Amino acid sequence: MKEKTLEIDRACFFKAFTEWFVVLQFKGCIMKIIPAIDVINGRCVRLFKGDYNFQKDYLPSPFEVAKKIEQAGFSDLHLIDLEGAKEGRVVNWPVIEQITQNTKLAVEVGGGVRAKDEVARLLALGVQRIMLGSLALQNPEILKDLLVAFGSEKIMVDIGWKDGGVYYHGWQEKADKEFEQVLKELLALGVNRILLTDVDKDGALQGPNFGLYERVGRDFPELLVTASGGISSKSDLRRLKNSGVEAVV
C-alpha cells in the first residue's frame, strides 16, 4: 500500500509540475519566475502555511526535480532547507551540492544560514544568492559584515509576514519590531533584496496577499521584492507584476 501511495504521489507531483510550466510560461510576463523546492531529510516536501505538523512528502528527489526545472527552460531555483531553518544551521549540504554541481541553474538557498563561514561555503559551491532570516533580523551587525564581505547582490533577507508581524526561525518566532521598522532598518544597512512571504498563504494555493506587495512597492520602492505564498494562476502573476515585484516564487 505504501509503495502504491508513493507512485500516486510521484504521478501527481509531475502532473502538477507540468501544469505549472504551462501556467508560468505565458507571454507578456517580464517578472523572473523562480520554481521552488523545500527540503527535509533530503526529500522534497511542502508545508501548509509554514506548519511543520502539516508536511506532505514527494517521492522525486530534489535533484530529479531540479533537472526537470532546468529541462523545462527555467534558469533559476529557489531552495529552502527546512530542517536547517528549525535547527539553526544548514543541514542538507549534499542536496545543495548535487544540484549546484550538476545543473546550470542559478540557485538561491535559505534555511538555517547563521554564520559567515556557511555563506562562504555556499557561495563556493556555486550558490548564486543566500537568503538570511533569523541572522538578519537578530544580528544586524553580522548582516552588515556579510553585505560588505560578499556584496548586496549575494544576500537576500527572508521575511515571513503574518497579521502585520515579522516572523523568523522557520516562521516559528515573532520579531519584536513592526514590519515597516524592519524594512527601514534593512535599507539603512544596505539590503536591497527581500523575499517576502505571507505565512498564511504559503502552501495554500489560494492567491497571494496582493495588498501587502502593493504597499511595500509603494512605500519602499528601493527594495527589490520577491513574492512568495499562495500564487496559483496566471492572473495572480499578472497582478503581482503590476504591483512592482521583481520576481515570484
From TrEMBL:
Pfam families reported for this sequence: His_biosynth
Classification via InterPro entries: Aldolase_TIM, His_biosynth, HisA/PriA, Isoase_HisA-like, RibuloseP-bd_barrel
Record EC number: 5.3.1.16
Record flagged with keyword Transcription: no
Reactions catalysed according to its record: 1-(5-phospho-beta-D-ribosyl)-5-[(5-phospho-beta-D-ribosylamino)methylideneamino]imidazole-4-carboxamide = 5-[(5-phospho-1-deoxy-D-ribulos-1-ylimino)methylamino]-1-(5-phospho-beta-D-ribosyl)imidazole-4-carboxamide
Alphabetized UniProt keyword annotations: Amino-acid biosynthesis, Cytoplasm, Histidine biosynthesis, Isomerase
Pathway in which the depicted protein is active: Amino-acid biosynthesis; L-histidine biosynthesis; L-histidine from 5-phospho-alpha-D-ribose 1-diphosphate: step 4/9
Keyword DNA-binding: no
Cell compartment(s), UniProt: Cytoplasm
GO biological process: L-histidine biosynthetic process; L-tryptophan biosynthetic process
GO molecular function: 1-(5-phosphoribosyl)-5-[(5-phosphoribosylamino)methylideneamino]imidazole-4-carboxamide isomerase activity
Protein's UniProt name: 1-(5-phosphoribosyl)-5-[(5-phosphoribosylamino)methylideneamino]imidazole-4-carboxamideisomerase
